[in-house]
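User: Please fill in residues for this 121-position structure.
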């Protein structure tokens, strides 16, 4: 996928909004994952650089199965940008067991740009 735009959330400046697109294959897998987990309201993105280095970033997909949009705290975004490759693994809680299950891994071709600290008008 590609990161197309990164902005500070206009309604809450502590959040970063990241817009992107995902490949058709990823889009299909992502949609299937959502179909299997329709009641999941909040997703957790686990950002991975190496197998043994993992950090969980809270995010909410705003347009599931379409262009990829999610938000995260600005301080976490800046840390994510500095420390990690552009690989996002989407996890969701299994309804029956309650366990966190991997739904899809999305690899971005380009790293996101560092957003300005003030939202553009």
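Assistant: Residues filled in for all 121 positions:
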């Amino acid at each position: 996928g590609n990161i197309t735009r990164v902005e500070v959330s206009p309604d809450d400046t502590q959040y970063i909004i990241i817009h992107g697109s995902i490949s058709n294959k990823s889009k299909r897998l992502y949609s299937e994952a959502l179909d299997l987990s329709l009641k999941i309201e909040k997703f957790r993105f686990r950002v991975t650089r190496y197998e043994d280095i993992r950090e969980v970033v809270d995010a909410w997909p705003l347009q599931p199965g379409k262009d990829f949009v999610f938000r995260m705290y600005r301080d976490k975004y800046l840390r994510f940008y500095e420390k990690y490759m552009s690989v996002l693994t989407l996890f969701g809680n299994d309804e029956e067991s309650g366990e966190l299950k991997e739904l899809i891994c999305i690899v971005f071709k380009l790293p996101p740009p560092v957003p300005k600290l003030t939202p553009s008008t």
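For context: The chain has two helices and seven strands.
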